[in-house]
Amino acid sequence: MLHSGIDLARLAYAERRLREGEPLRVVTVARLVEKKGVVYALRAIARLVGAGRAVTYTVAGDGVLRPELERAIAELDLDSEVRLLGW
Questions:
Q1: Which residue of 28, 45, 65, 66 is most buried, as measured by CB atoms within 10 A?
Q2: Burial zone of 7 (CB within 10 Å; 0-12 exposed, 13-18 middle, 19+ buried)
Q3: What pairs with residue 27 in β-bridges?
Q4: 22-61 exposure pattern, b = at least 16 Cβ within 10 A, e = fewer
């Protein structure tokens, strides 16, 4: 197991609920490499959008898979829902 260095006991949990019309916001911060599974997240976002859910997905990071992910975003018609921020 890898220790994250964040003392979760110092963070208070507060349940959050979406307001009417507010999109579900999903964020990934990672290198864009296969083992991070970002392409699977894109497919999940596409399924949510296909089911009529309002979703935004922001990816902060860069890596060798960026061109592949850009193609997947276009193929899944997620240009309006997904932002690749880079580093």
A1: 45
A2: exposed
A3: 58
A4: eeeebebeeebeeebebbebbeebbebbeeeeebebebeb
Distance CA 29, CA 59 (A): 6
As beta bridge partners, residue 61 has 86
pTM, two decimal places:
0.82
Q: Contact 72/39 with Cβ under 8 angstroms?
A: yes
Are 58 and 40 spatial neighbours (Cβ–Cβ below 8 Å)?
no
Contact 56, 85 (CB under 8 A): no
pLDDT computed for residue 41 by the predictor:
97
Q: How far apart are CA 39 and CA 32, in angstroms?
A: 9
Query: pLDDT confidence of 81, banded at 50, 70, 90?
Result: very high
Percent of the chain with pLDDT over 90: 79
